[in-house]
């Protein structure tokens, strides 16, 4: 068994009510759950109040009793500072329940000079930082350490079975099982541990078998200690408000080097950086920068400098308004970190110099004009070319808005199209941001119509476009362009189950006499130009 040190705060629900709600724990106080006393103060016990009493009986024994309802959330919130205080002395703490926490005793006992010295140090530190009285017990296993903490004992190594053997069966915390064992003549944990494990399982079930293991000094699981997260944030307070970019750049470089050193000390690297600034008037500024590689100290410093330049002078270039006062505090938050070996360099080395220079230039534009000023296209799923492209800010994760794979097809490996009704390849070279209205005529000069059953009134022969939109399309697509070839219609009926979002249209591919190919659509009786093929 693991040598375990357990800290126990007596009457914790009462202390939590005092810490959170201001109920004075020095008077007669009782915390009730399901109309029974769950915990009570020392003065209430002096007047006869005990755990398990009904509310009326407890108030009958102590007329001045202050009754508080049980609140597990309150107990947990009040106990968090105690756990934090213990972690300041020794790492690897597991919260057993609000009011009790345990940790392996080997670590603190080795560097504090023994188990007794470690127990005294932890109790003293908790009392000084949280103003909470506590007791510590040390034994082999969590269960034995909890019983030892109630007595303030340090059980010597190997003495846990003997220590447990003298404890009454009520120490198991199972009243029904303890009452049954008493009636069977089993009064101590030693008597219970002496029984055969198979007989205990057959007679008392799995819960009884677990209690039997605990009585023998064998816990059901090892400690599940928590590791407190490392605070990697770096902050600097400036003596005077910064309003000039060159002064801000100097402070940014020093802060970036500190952050890089702190990350390197933990074997980490930054991929997403949060830059925060506070002005002299209390205005808070925040911006997150992303990077598809590892941010070096110089890269961090550059991004902080660009961002400060954008905040301080960006308004001159059409960016956000200048802060109301100079910057007095800078903070760098590594929002995304991974191990140094988490990114694999390219086959022929790191990223090329040209790509890095372009990335630096685009990132600087973002610092001046905002993250939405520079966007890149990400291909995804959809039935029309406009639905298959999503614009994301430069440096953000390039994830499609619509997945382009059917899970069942992906699992089976069948090469099925993920969007039924999707246009076949090749994809058009130019997708217009807004579809343009066009007119399509037949050989007789009559408008071409498409019925609800996709029947065309006549083959298309000519196409014309509004004169105001001619500058947006190639020269050949003007008024009176001749159609020499066409294909379609390809219908698409989307979201028919939602009338407000439903969309029904038919698409055509047409080829003009000058070789230009267009993607047209008919929707609600109107012809629209959606895209242009190369």
TrEMBL record:
UniProt cross-references to Gene3D superfamilies, sorted A to Z: 3.30.70.270, 3.40.1170.60
Keyword Chaperone annotated: no
UniProt keyword annotations, A-Z: DNA damage
Coiled coil feature spans: none
Keyword DNA damage among record annotations: yes
Domain of life: Bacteria
Boundaries of every UmuC domain copy: 28-153
Entry function: Poorly processive, error-prone DNA polymerase involved in untargeted mutagenesis. Copies undamaged DNA at stalled replication forks, which arise in vivo from mismatched or misaligned primer ends. These misaligned primers can be extended by PolIV. Exhibits no 3'-5' exonuclease (proofreading) activity. May be involved in translesional synthesis, in conjunction with the beta clamp from PolIII.
Entry's family note: Belongs to the DNA polymerase type-Y family.
Protein name: DNA polymerase Y family protein
């Amino acid at each position: 068994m693991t040598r375990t040190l357990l800290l126990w705060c007596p009457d914790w629900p009462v202390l939590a009510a005092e810490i959170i709600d201001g109920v004075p724990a020095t008077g007669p106080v009782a915390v009730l759950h399901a109309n029974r006393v769950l915990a009570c103060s020392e003065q209430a016990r002096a007047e006869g109040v005990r755990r398990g009493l009904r509310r009326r009986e407890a108030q009958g024994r102590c007329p001045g009793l202050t009754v508080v309802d049980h609140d597990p959330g309150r107990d947990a919130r009040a106990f968090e500072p105690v756990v934090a205080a213990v972690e300041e002395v020794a790492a690897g703490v597991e919260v057993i329940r609000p009011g009790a926490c345990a940790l392996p005793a080997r670590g603190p006992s080795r560097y504090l000079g023994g188990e007794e010295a470690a127990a005294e140090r932890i109790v003293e530190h908790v009392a000084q930082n949280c103003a909470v009285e506590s007791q510590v017990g040390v034994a082999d296993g969590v269960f034995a350490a909890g019983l030892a903490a109630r007595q303030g004992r340090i059980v010597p190594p190997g003495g846990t079975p003997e220590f447990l053997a003298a404890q009454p069966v009520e120490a198991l915390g199972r009243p029904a099982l303890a009452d049954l064992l008493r009636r069977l003549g089993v009064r101590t944990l030693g008597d219970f541990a002496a029984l055969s494990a198979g007989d205990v399982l057959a007679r008392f079930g799995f819960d009884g078998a677990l209690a039997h293991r605990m009585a023998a000094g064998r816990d059901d699981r090892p400690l599940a200690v928590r590791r407190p997260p490392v605070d990697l944030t770096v902050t600097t307070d400036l003596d005077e408000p910064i309003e000039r970019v060159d002064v801000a750049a100097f402070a940014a470089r020093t802060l970036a080097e500190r952050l890089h050193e702190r990350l390197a000390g933990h074997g980490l690297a930054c991929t997403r950086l949060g830059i925060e600034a506070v002005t002299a008037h209390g205005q808070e500024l925040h911006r997150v920068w992303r990077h598809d590689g590892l941010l070096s100290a110089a890269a961090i410093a550059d991004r902080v400098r660009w961002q400060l330049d954008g905040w301080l002078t960006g308004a001159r270039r059409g960016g956000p308004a200048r802060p109301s006062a100079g910057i007095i505090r800078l903070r760098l938050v590594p929002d995304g970190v991974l191990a140094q070996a988490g990114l694999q360099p390219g086959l022929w080395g790191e990223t090329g110099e040209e790509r890095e220079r372009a990335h630096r230039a685009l990132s600087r534009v973002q610092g001046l004009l905002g993250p939405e000023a520079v966007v890149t296209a990400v291909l995804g799923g959809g039935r029309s070319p406009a639905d298959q492209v999503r614009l994301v800010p430069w440096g953000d994760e390039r994830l499609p808005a619509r997945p382009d794979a059917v899970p069942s097809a992906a699992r089976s490996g069948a090469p099925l199209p993920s969007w039924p009704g999707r246009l076949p390849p090749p994809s058009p070279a130019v997708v217009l941001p807004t579809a343009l209205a066009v007119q399509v005529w037949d050989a007789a000069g009559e408008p071409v119509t498409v019925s609800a059953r996709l029947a065309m009134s006549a083959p298309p022969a000519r196409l014309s476009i509004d004169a105001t939109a001619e500058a947006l399309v190639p020269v050949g697509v003007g008024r009176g362009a001749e159609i020499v070839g066409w294909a379609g219609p390809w219908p698409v009926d989307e979201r028919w189950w939602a009338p407000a979002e439903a969309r029904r249209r038919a698409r055509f591919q047409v080829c003009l006499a000058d070789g230009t190919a267009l993607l047209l659509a008919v929707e609600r009786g109107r012809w629209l130009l959606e895209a242009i093929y190369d």
